[in-house]
Amino acid sequence: MTNSALLYEQSGPVGWINLNRPNEMNAINLQMLDEFEEILPRIANDDAVKVIVLTGKGRAFCAGADLKEILNSARLQPGEADFIDRLTGRVLNVLRDFPKPVIAALNGITMAGGLETAMCADIVVAADSARIGDAHANYGVYPGAGGAAVLPRIIPLNVAKFLLFTGSTLSAEEMKIYGFVNQVVDLNSLRAETQRIAELIAEKSPIALQRMKTVANETGSKALHDALEHEQVLFRRHMRSYDAMEGLNAFSEKRRPQFKGY
Fold this sequence. Notes:
Belongs to the enoyl-CoA hydratase/isomerase family. The chain is an alpha/beta fold. 44% of the residues lie in helices and 16% in strands. The longest helix is centred in the first third of the chain and has 15 residues, at 30-44. The termini are far apart. The model has no long low-confidence stretch (mean pLDDT 94).
């Protein structure tokens, strides 16, 4: 087996990033951060990739950060980026604002930093066997990459507090009820169903999706009037794009549009 902490493969218009530390439940280590920092800009600039999927090898999606490496990073020199600086600033924030749609395919245990990684996805598809939780409290650790700050923006506040305070996990079906998971499938169908959803998205105009994502991501921190104004500004800009005209022409000509992403 390769020593890479991430395995990347492309299936049609979909780029799959596989967390590849199955014996460590895909815990995030410095090597994985290095590889994320290298691969994400490359995928962002690859026009052949329209959607990316994050998933894990083995029985876990990701059980969180490698705590040994977090301890070691505390010994860095002042001003040097530590583990959490790199995880949040160079990986998770990049995923959250990625210019292409991001899908998390949760194949198993998803906890702590794994949960925080999944929270960066635009869409979450989970195997029915997946267990999802925060778990920081079990080790006296405080979430530093969105567990307390972002989770209550996705699921009800009292459910977020339950996961944060108890360190418990919930099933994929339960997390679907609370709005964290979009779709629950059998583990054996996870890859195929996620690929199907990704290919459906990949058919759409890349520039339209990017603009939708920008407005949707920012709307929670804006007053309604400001969010609507932001949407209208991007709408007017979009209506001058090739893809907008191509979509309207294809509709009137009763054919499939051929989008170019500009």
